[in-house]
Amino acid sequence: MTNRFSLAVHGGAGTILRRQMTAEKETAYHAGIKLALEAGYAVLEKGGDAVDAVVEAVCALEDNPLFNAGRGAVFTADGKHEMDAAVMEGTNRHVGATAGICGPRNPVRVARLIMDQSEHVFFGADAAIKMARDAGLRFEEDDYFHTEVRWHALQETLKLRAEGKESDDPARRHGTVGAVACDANGKLAAATSTGGMTAKAPGRIGDSPVIGAGTFADNQTCAISATGHGEVFIRYCAAHEIAARMRHRGESLAVAADHIVMEDLGKNDGSGGLVAVDANGNVSMPMNSEGMYRGVVTQDGRFETFIYRDDEPHQG
Amino acid sequence: MTNRFSLAVHGGAGTILRRQMTAEKETAYHAGIKLALEAGYAVLEKGGDAVDAVVEAVCALEDNPLFNAGRGAVFTADGKHEMDAAVMEGTNRHVGATAGICGPRNPVRVARLIMDQSEHVFFGADAAIKMARDAGLRFEEDDYFHTEVRWHALQETLKLRAEGKESDDPARRHGTVGAVACDANGKLAAATSTGGMTAKAPGRIGDSPVIGAGTFADNQTCAISATGHGEVFIRYCAAHEIAARMRHRGESLAVAADHIVMEDLGKNDGSGGLVAVDANGNVSMPMNSEGMYRGVVTQDGRFETFIYRDDEPHQG
User: ipTM of this model?
Assistant: First the structure.
């Protein structure tokens, strides 16, 4: 039996205002999201595995300095990078997750490595980096992860903080990339990767590697990758709660995902959004923020990308 | 309005066989569990807060070398200690969690510190240790955490591993302590603390600090602290799934908790158990293992402790 396959990706949510955008930047974001969709679609259209699809899609976002993960990861308060990532598949609920790493070019591949090779599912930074080295994953020097726009954002944030203020732009404070897929066999997978929050306290672990909060997959219900104010996503076990509503209340993916994002998160300081897919290939991408870089591609090969909440689909 | 208050604690689950026990050891375990109950009860009977109660109860278990947390924490494969802990309260879902720490005498107090002082909820080891030092929490030298029985267990496990075997005693592989409470105001809280698994890979993070897996609290439903094969508890978001079944299916605490422990975990290699309390003070302590060191005390001041699954209540 062949399922309808589909893939959705996000590149972070936040206050994305049209007046602060340029046509050039919009084009670059749409192109970046589309590139990630293409990387995952190339796997799925060959009948490939959902895990491969989400990992390739997330790698494309990690390699793009526009997004807060991998190369474009934001800086911590002490000017370093600490990246979190997770991957989960929905057939056996296999999981790999890590927190606080810097060095591996693609943190999501480290999460994948943990999922594939370890009896454990979650590793701190030093152990994960050692596993990545031992496995021959690609590493990059510090300057690869140094982007001017992130460095500038750190300086701005530290300056505001010194003045006792906070940035009015939540997008500067958080951002994440992620992908969810349903493959032709109805297998679901989710992957999430992030640099965290600009000027975050060193050591802070967000929701991305917390299974059930920022990342979740179960073939019975859905695959979820979230982005936003991670602390609130952790408190509300956001990703798992969507699956729970589907299983226990019989809600559709769209109804369950909307409820969590608008009610549980939206009414409790949990700004952000998520991408979600169910085992029939239905996709949902709710947000309670002004925008979320996101896109979807289905079996028919139609690529659609979006920036603002009320955006028309952009078919690049 | 005054609720019926109650407190339950556990000191780890596993293959606890009567033939390997001595009367002396049983007495020591019962006494250790009772001491923890007394520490929490002292808070609750004065009308104190559920968070204070679970933290004090867990500290008593951390200070007791019999249990795998704090002083009695097991050794990692490279002969060190890496402790995880979390605390969560059910009124505002405030959370504090940390992973991989060694030094603070009471890891649960570090989790509490994070909950009370940080806008973030989850910190890696270095950051958490620094926060603990800055806050003046009590630290101990390495020899405090060196117990002969744990060192011997590590040597045994490493020897078996070198021979290509595994210990047949899951209790040697995992163990955790935890407490849940409902206070006189109907506020719920949960706390969990662990040294992890004997000979675990350095850097491995278990379910204890993963909110929704090994620790969870929400006044609407329940507070949960789990112990067992943590990887499976993470995959099944065990603690949050109990709350979800109560909210969405209207199940009682006992029915929901039993279902997770016997079905979701028990049938998927997730040996272990948990202690749970709801906002009416009802307590449930299901396990799918041979035993779990555990105890409960309610408003009437009756202390009951247990070791084996089919144990009669021990009133020390």
Answer: 0.95
